[in-house]
Amino acid sequence: MSSAKIVSNTDNEVKAKSLELAQNMSEPSVPKVKKFNLFGDVVARGNDVKKAFVTKANEVVHPKIPVSERIRKFFSRETVLKLQEEGRTIMSLASFFGLVLIFLVDLTIRLLANIPGIKQLLTAIGNKTGHHVWRLSETLINRFESRPGRIRRSVLINLAFRNMRVKRTRAMVTVGGMGLGIGAIVFLVSLGYGVQRLVVSRVARLDELRMADVTLQNSSNLRLDNNAITSMQNMSGVAKVMPMVSLVGKLTFSGGQGESLVYGVSKEYLEAAGIKPTQGEFFESSDEAAMTQMQGTVAGVSDGIAYLHPSKVGTVIKEGRYELGSSVYSVYQEPWINATELGMTRAIAGGIWGSEVWGESYGGGMKGKFEITYTNEKRGVWLASSYPIWEKVKGKLVPKLDETGAQVWSRGYIKMLDSVSGESEAKVGETRIGSVLGESSVVEAPYTVLGETEEASIAATVVGVDEAGVEWVDLTSLDATEAAKPEIMIIETPGSARKQAMVNTPFMELVGIDKNNPVGATFEISFVILNTLKPDLDRPAQSAKATYTVSGIIDEGTSPQMYVPLEDLTGLGITNFSQAKVVAGKQDELSAVRQQIDNLGYKTTSVADTVEQIDKLFATVRIVLASFGLVALTVASLGMFNTLTVSLMERTREVGVMKAMGMRSVEVKELFLAEAMIMGLLGGVFGVLAGWGMGKILGLLLSTISIARGVGAIDV
Questions:
Q1: For the chain, what percent of residues have pLDDT higher than 90?
Q2: Core-most of 22, 168, 216, 477, by most CB within 10 Å?
Q3: Is 301 helix (H, G, I), strand (E, B) or coil?
Q4: Does this model's pTM top 0.85?
């Protein structure tokens, strides 16, 4: 006993000495490093030597590997084999998933076959195709089953489904929970997309996302005229440009007088803007365009330049200031030879502001005859402006006077003869007016003023003689040295005006048009024209009263509005437009087109800006809604995990028996994996169907409420 006790004591002493020696070697005595914590207490930290020892040990266990060695190992055979193994694992899972899908499809077909009528249909399909359809599933199963010496995975899937049928209630609750979570996500996200689509459809149509409205800047000196429209039309990415003129119209009706907003547009503009008549139809409008080859020099533009302009009579080509030569110019009411002749005109000091327009070919001068190649028509260039009208009285040309004694100014057209110059340098004094006599005489003779004849004494001053010997005479009343001009210039409505209009309900209420039969009703209107639209005006102007016919009714605006053909307003001499609508060839080209127009100094606005803000808002809303649905899906996933865990614990003995019979651990894992896949797929299918159904039910409820309130059906 004593010897044993001695040996034991000796062993204990050896162990103690060894432990002390190890501690002395691993933890040599060094001064502690003191550091202060947040509260100022002295806390002993670790040992620097110990840290160095641990670092050295880590370097021994995990030595640094050079980069070249890492690259070599990455392309080594071991790495390739490892990647192949991972790839086989992924392919194995993919094929397993495919087998589960085939099983569920086969199960669905078997369930449908129990329904009367469908079984006969499936049998007929099998007989017609020689049962190739049913053999296709067997072929796919055999293709996926490529593991010799192991249990077929299709058998494991069938066994997993049988296990689910044994615990039917638990399986149904788990699948229902998964379906509820997925259905919540589908419903909430689709609700976000549906509301976004509903809002966007109320804000803009699909075509409007390619359009932009062009207006002038508040402090801009630019003009939105034909030249600007042509420049925009020639930009890359632009499909078409449609101008618009807005002004005020003065109405005259049986109940009195009123005012209305007037928009001069083309039929194409109305269609692009989505304005459709609720009754009647669009007014007639002409939007043809042709390429005309200009021969010779036109107002300082070099030979051979092609211009793209509408070829119809009365369409404006360009505008500017023009000087009239010494010729006597006949003023026509329309730009064709057989039109009513309003009188004669002559050169005006400082020139006139006018527009070159297409008209009937007159064959004289270089601008009298142009070929329209695509229609084989001939056109002539006419100068449209407001002219002082002269008439012949006893062989002399005297001013035509109105009721107030002022000279009549009428809107008309003259031929663009060679003596008409578009160059601003040309002065009246340099033209060949003839001899300026400066004689003054008194002419006592009857003359015609607005269809009335009276005797009057007029002081006539001969200011010139043309090449034909006809004297040009300025008349002055003996009672006044100069007749006062009327405060408002009246511009005659051209005979080519279509005089059709589309009006809204407030307009009909103002004028007193019968709402039950509005189409075909007539009313009188004159248009107020400002110098912003017609730059050559030196005083306010308005068109002569014209009778317009209602062609259609629109449901827009709360104040009186009407739309008239654009050519009706341009025929009054309007050369500047209020705004234009630019249509891009593609939706993604609109941004570049707007940038080009902005660079010219114009301002562009588009409903696409509003839609972009709506998209940003609903992107955030969808994330929030999806987060709510994700919470439900997470809860359902935890429920499925809990179900599988309980199932595994309950079937521990069953798993032991299967392993005792030779089943491998991988196959046991695949058995429970198949059960999880089946529940997940069934939950996903039921969730998508439930989300779709909830969306339809919500849409039906909203449509019922909206229809009851007269808004219309709503589909979210």
A1: 15
A2: 216
A3: strand
A4: no
